[in-house]
C-alpha cells in the first residue's frame, strides 16, 4: 500500500474563505445566483485555482467549469466536484466545499500521479440551487443533455429576466446548450456538508451516502367558508384552518408510521383572508414528502393525498391536491460506496451510511453515471444560512477521503 | 292601543341604495373610512335626509351627526342610530341600515308626535369599524368623553396620516374632542344586521340582543427550530407548525367544551420562514376568544393561554402568549330588551334572543347608557363583504320594531 495522500489544509481554508467573500451580503451569508456578477467572479477565482493546479480548464455551453488532469486513458473520465452557486444568504460550505475539496484532492493526486491511469476532472457545476431561476439542476442536466434549449426562454427570475438573457450577459448562447452534453464520464464523486444534524449529533466523522431520497411536493387547497369569528356558531362553521390543523398532524403521523428515513413536512402554509376576526375560508399548504425507496415514496404520496381528502370530508371542507414535484430517488453506486468505505476504514475514521434527504447534483448525474457522495458533519444541522458551519478539522477528513477514493478509482 | 306606526319602505330602500353608491369600489362593495371624502359625502347626504325629516341637525367635535326631534322634556334624550363608516369593500347594510332605519323610524314618529314626550335623536356615529385607524369606537367613545385628545396624534393610517391630521382636513379640531361628551342621554337603540347565520338558518324574523360578548385577542408565538425538511429526522425536529396545529385543534375543542355562545377562533396565522423545504421555525397566530359572561370570558382566556403553553411543552417548543385585546362583555338593558320583545310580539313576528359576537357602538354606549339592539337576518351570515344581503321584506320588520320601541320609550 502507498503512503497516504495528503491534501493541503491551508489551501482548503484559504479557498473557502476567498469564495465566501464573493457575493457576501451585509447581513451575513453570501449570494451567488447563477449568471450573476458574484457567480462569475467566483468562477474566475476557481478558474485561476484550476490553472494553478496544472489542470486544463474548459467551460461548457451553460457555464459549467472543468479542470482536467489527463490520464493515460482519455475516457471514461472521473468527475469530482460540486456547485458554485448559492441560495440567498447561503453559508460558507454548501457547494463551495465540494468544489474546493475537489481541487485540493486533484492537486494532491497530480503531485503523485502527473499522468494517472484515468483522466480526472474537477467539475464546477454552474447551478444547483434554483435560487434565481427554478431551473432544476441546470448544470447537471446540461451535462447529461437533458435540457431543451427552449427552457432557457421559459424561466424568469424575480426581475422578469429570462434565463436565456442572463446567459447571454456572460457570452453564453442558449442555442448551444446541447453541446454541453457529455458521454465520456464514468464516475462522479461529490463531497458536501450533510445539511442535517445526524453526523453532528451522533459524533460520527463522515457520512457515506447510499441514496438520495425521492421527493414529492403536493399542493393542498382546503376550502371552507370565511365567516365572522364572533357571530358564527361553531357548529355552523366551515373552518379551513381547523381542518388543516388536523391534516398537518396527520402528515407528521404518516411519516412516523413509515419510520426513518421517511419525511413529510408542511413548511409552507397560507391562510386566507388571515384576519384575527374572520374564520379562515381557505388554507393553502404544501406537503414535502421524501423517501429513498421509490415504492415507499409513491405509497407516502398516495397517503398524503388520501388522508388530506378524508380529513376534509370529515370536516365538511373541500380539499384539492395537486402534485407539484415528483422526483424519483437516486441510488448511489454500490461499488463506489464500498470503495469510499474502504478508504475511510483505512484512515481509521468513523463513518455511517446515510440517505440524503436534500437534493444534489449527484441525484441527477447518479441516474446515468455511477455516483457517490461523502458528507462531513454540519454543526447543529444548519445549512442554507450564514449559521452553516463545520470546523476545519471535520472538513479535512472529507477532503482526504475524497482524494483517496478518486486516487483509487483513477490511479490503480 | 294606538294604530301601528308605519315606516316608509320606499324611502328606506332608496336611502340604502344611495349610501351604497358612496365609496363604491370597482370590484364591488363600498369603502367609507372615517375622515375620507366618501365618508364626508355620505354624511352630507344623511344631513340632508335629517333636515328633510324636520330634525334639528348638529355635528359634534369628532364628526358624529345628530338629528333631534325636540320633546316636551329636553332630557334624558333617546338616541337611535348606528355608524356611517365601513370596512374596506363593505356591504350595503353594515352600519347603513341602522342609520337609515333610525331616520325612517324618527320620521314616522314625528308624523304622529310632532312634539313627543321625550327628545329623540338620530345618532350617526362617525367611526366604528377601525378600518382606517385602529381607534376603537371613536364616535361612541367621544360621546362618552372617553377619548384622550392625545390619542388623535397617536393613531396613523396606512399612509402615515395621523387621525388628528385627518380630522383637520374636515375642519375638526382634535383639541375640542372633549366637547363631544354628552351626559343627557337616557337610552340608545341600534338596529343592525346580525352578521351571523343564526336568524337566517333558523328562519326567525328578528333577533333581540341580550348581551354583546366580551372579546379577547391573544397573540401566540410558537418558537421551534427551522431545519431542512429533507435532512432532519422527525425525532430531531422542533416543528413550530406541528405544535401549532395541535393548539388550533385545542382552541376549537375548548370553545366546544364551554358550549354556545363561546367562541375561540384562530383566524390569523403566519409561518416563518414559510418555505416548502424548511421545517417551520416560528409560527405566530392570534386567538380570538369571546363570551358574554365576564367570568367565563376570563376562564376562556386563561385556558387559551394554559393549553397553548402545555402543548408547547409537550412538543418541545417555546410558547409566548400576550393579550392584545381585553374587552369586557356589555349586557343590554333588560328593560329595553323586554320592551322590544313586547312590540315584536304585538306585531306577531318571530324573534329570539341573541348574543352579539360582533362588536357594535352599543357595546360602548351600553356600558353607561341603557342600550339595546335589534338584529335582522343576514343571508348566509355574510357581512364585511359585498355579499352582505338582507331582502327588503326582512329589513322592514327590523325598522318597524325599532320605530315601535322608540315610540313607546319616547311618546308614552
Strand fraction of chain A equals: 15-25%
CATH class category name of the largest domain in chain A:
Alpha Beta
**What is the assigned CATH homologous superfamily of the largest domain in chain A?**
Zn peptidases
Q: Which structural class matches the secondary elements of chain A?
A: alpha/beta
| Total individual domains of chain A | 2
Question: How is the topology of this model organized?
Answer:
2 copies of one chain form a homodimer.
Chain A: H1 9-21, H2 37-52, E1 56-59, E2 65-69, E3 73-83, H3 96-112, E4 118-125, H4 138-143, H5 151-154, H6 163-168, E5 185-193, H7 198-202, E6 206-212, E7 214-223, E8 227-228, H8 240-258, E9 263-272, E10 278-279, E11 282-291, H9 294-315, E12 318-327, E13 330-331, H10 334-347, E14 351-356, H11 361-365, E15 371-376, H12 392-411
Parallel strand pairs in A: 3-4, 3-5, 5-15, 6-14
Antiparallel strand pairs in A: 1-2, 2-4, 6-13, 6-15, 7-11, 7-12, 8-10, 9-11
Helix pairs in contact in A: 1-3, 3-12, 8-9, 10-12
Give a description of the structure.
- The structure is a homodimer of 412-residue chains.
- Chain A is an alpha/beta fold.
- Chain A folds into 2 domains: 287 residues, Aminopeptidase, CATH 3.40.630.10; 114 residues, Alpha-Beta Plaits, CATH 3.30.70.
- The first copy, chain A, contains 12 helices and 15 strands.
- In chain A, strands 1, 2, 3, 4, 5, 6, 13, 14 and 15 form a 9-stranded mixed beta sheet that branches. A 4-stranded antiparallel beta sheet of chain A has the order 9-11-7-12, covered by helices on one side.
- In chain A, a hairpin with a 5-residue loop joins strand 1 and strand 2.
- Chain A is globular and about 80 Å long.
- Chain A starts with 8 loop residues before the first helix and ends with a helix.
- The model of chain A has no long low-confidence stretch (mean pLDDT 96).
- The interface between A and B is large, with 56 and 56 residues.
